[in-house]
From TrEMBL:
It is found in: Cell membrane. Pfam families: AI-2E_transport. InterPro entries: AI-2E-like. The keyword Nucleotide-binding does not apply. It comes from Pseudomonas graminis. Belongs to the autoinducer-2 exporter (AI-2E) (TC 2.A.86) family. One of its GO terms (cellular component) is plasma membrane. Keywords: Cell membrane, Membrane, Transmembrane, Transmembrane helix, Transport. The chain crosses the membrane at residues 60-80, 154-172, 221-249, 269-290, 302-335. This is AI-2E family transporter. The keyword Transport applies. It is a multi-pass membrane protein.
Amino acid sequence: MFNNDRLLVQILLLALLGACLWVMAPFWSALFWGAVLAFASWPLMRLLTRALKGRESLAAAILTLGWMVLVLAPLVWLGFNLADHVRDATAFVKDVQVDGLPDPPTWLAGVPLVGERLVGYWNTIDQQGAALLVSVRPYLGQVGNWLLARSAQIGGGILELTLSIVFVFFFYRDGPRVAAFVLSLLERLIGDRAQYYLDLVAGTVQRVVNGVIGTAAAQAVLALIGFLIAGVPGALVLGIGTFLLSLVPMGPPLIWIPATAWLAWRGDYGMAIFLGLWGTFIVSGVDNVLKPYLISRGGNLPLVIVLLGVFGGLLAFGFIGLFIGPTLLAVAYSLLLDWVADNRARQPVK
């Protein structure tokens, strides 16, 4: 016979849990990203706490301020200066449309065997580029309206990122207590293997964060160095754009290739060649070498999981889904692999 009082208490607890989830729903993505960011940088938090003689709140405040300077300040600066750079880009497009590309350099025709063909390609690109600009001119206004409509979504993504950095402070300060609570909850749900699964999830999150964000940061810094050496205006804006586009396959070339073309259009062929080589072998080379190494280090995580997570997370969660998507898929993949391996190990040998 059922205990009516106990059943009523369980129903009330479930209703309370549902109400809490409903209230917290707008903040799940920011909370998740704040937790991932705090976990990935936890060794730095531990080192700073030790240097400050155990003052966790002060260490958490310093690290949170550092994240604000590194992440939010460039985004705010980008927002204030984006209009000027868009105006410069529009002027550049108009100049190309009116004047076309400059005459091919004299040394281009002197290249052995292929010089005349390269000059022909140069003139063909000039003619086709002018025709293309004329054909797409009626659609430029529609593109501008589309970008204006998406600006609200971009603002929402920046707001979520701001909230996640605010939450990072509390994860830093209360990290050990949160970890102990999660461990006790897992022990209540799955028993003795709770610590094992917690370590598995922690290692997966660490690899994904280091692989995706670490590679994007490395590419952004290297691209910024190249833009500064080549004298490209708006180098910081282009560096931030490289960081964002580094999260998707073949994203950085969308930044450094137009910059290289701009240098060539101005007649600065030496720096154009330098930036093209720098982007091909240095900036894009990091993505081909560093990312697979960081993600697969200590595990057997296919890169396609990360790529699907990037695109799926972007569609599901917006801007912040670029970070949440790969982490979720990678954790789920690792847990499924472990569950299958454990099930096979328990089967009796025939």
